[in-house]
Structure formats: structure tokens, C-alpha cells
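Q: What does the predicted 3D structure of UPF0216 protein ENL48_02000 look like?
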Amino acid sequence: MTDRVLAKLIESVNRHLPERKQSLKALINSENPTIKARDGNEYYIEKEELEFIAKFVEEFDWDKFYIPIILEMTNLGEEYVIYVRDKRHAKFLEKAFGFNRYSGNTMLLYTYEMQKIRRKLKTTTQVMFRV
């Protein structure tokens, strides 16, 4: 498989990612919080998840905290590692779940840690795949 074919395949797998992220503030104040994906579908965001996140994010930062939280999965040799590149997202995950493994400014998670996050935040997190 060529690099170009692989890149197209990954792009296709990531079509569920948002066309545009929305702020926690906008979504929490919305009657019907949804995010439109690149594939054209609209995904409903659970209010309970937004309220959970809001407990750990200062209210004055709600307009700068964007949903969804992107968990970037990549293959590192024989195991998968998840990167959280957004500093606000990493700070939230550290407060809410106690994860604090970093490489520079990027939070690193293992798949079993990602599962804990996804169980609690099914609609406010999305997994992005990288090669």
C-alpha cells in the first residue's frame, strides 16, 4: 500500500471528526447541542457530559474550551498511544481523570486510559486516527 493510498484511507476513517468545533459555553447554553461532522452528519452532545466537563473547567474559559475533545490515536511500534494536543483538554483530563503523562506540551495516554475517558464522555470525545 502506498503512502498516498494509506493517507486517503485514514482521511476516510476520520470523516466523523467535526467540520467546526464549538465552545463549551455555546453547547452548554444550547437547547439541542449538536456538532456537524465532515461527513455531513450531525452528532448530538449529551448535556450531562457538558455539565461534567464544566465542573472541571473555569467558567471564564468555557468560551475557549472546544468540543469535541480529540484523542489522537497512533501506532507506536507494537502498541497504540493516544495524544491529547490541546492544552485545555489535557488540563481538563488531568483534573477529571488524574492522567498526567506528558511529552513536552502533549499529553500521552494508553488505550486502557482512553477507554476510561470514552466510557464517561461518549459524545464529547472523538478518536482521530494517525499513521
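A (community wiki): The C-alpha cells above were generated from the sequence. The longest strand covers residues 69-76. The radius of gyration is 15 Å.
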